[in-house]
Amino acid sequence: MKKLENKRFVFIITDRNRNNIHVGLSSNLIKTMDFYRMMPNLFFDAGKQLTNLVYFEELNSENMAESRFKTINRFTRTQKEKIIKSVNTDWMDLTNALKYEGINKRIIFTQPLLSFAS
Questions:
Q1: Which CATH superfamily is domain 4-105 in?
Q2: Which of 18, 84, 87, 105 is buried most, with the most CB atoms less than 10 Å from its CB?
Q3: How far is Cα 77 from Cα 20, in angstroms, rounded to an integer?
Q4: Given phi > 0 = left and psi -120 to 50 = alpha, else beta, which region is 88?
Q5: Gap between the Cα atoms of 63 and 83, Å rounded
Q6: Which candidate, 108, 115, 111, places its Cα nearest to that of 7?
Q7: Residue burial 34-52, b: 16+ Cβ < 10 Å; e: rest
């Protein structure tokens, strides 16, 4: 059985108007999203308030997660929108569903799902 500490999450969050998109990396996605909600102006100005989780991947190792994070972070905005729409066409906030289902029931990706090369 894999240790919980080894899990890493690459995620994309946005503001309510979808004007700003941020790619992040976390070892505890629920805790990270709670932090973004409690401190919305800590990293970004009041106009951005990135609190909607619209995409995430769960990976088995820190190296895989860092590699995937770097890849997605280099994507253009259009490429990021495509990856979001590939699994979340309506850009719904996935935070509540994530908490409801529990993170341990999620699929663990061993290979990237999609690659949007330019």
A1: GIY-YIG endonuclease (3.40.1440.10)
A2: 84
A3: 9
A4: beta
A5: 21
A6: 108
A7: eebeeebeeebeeebbbbb
Q: What is the mean pLDDT of residues 48-68?
A: 91
Let me know how many helices (H) and strands (E) the chain has, helices first.
4, 3
Q: Do residues 22 and 12 lie in contact, with contact meaning Cβ atoms separated by under 8 Å? A: yes
Strand runs labelled E in 50-103: 52-59
Under DSSP, the state recorded for 108 is P
The tokens describing 14, both together, are 């946005």
- Residue position matching structure tokens 């946005």: 14
Ranges of each domain in the chain? 4-105
Residue 38 main-chain phi, psi, to 5 deg: -75, -30
pLDDT digits (tens, 9 = 90+) for 91-104: 999 988 877 666 54
Two tokens at 70?
A: 């770097």
pLDDT of 17-39, one tens digit each? Answer: 899 999 999 999 988 888 888 77
Nearest alpha-carbon partner for 117 in 65, 84, 88, 74: 74
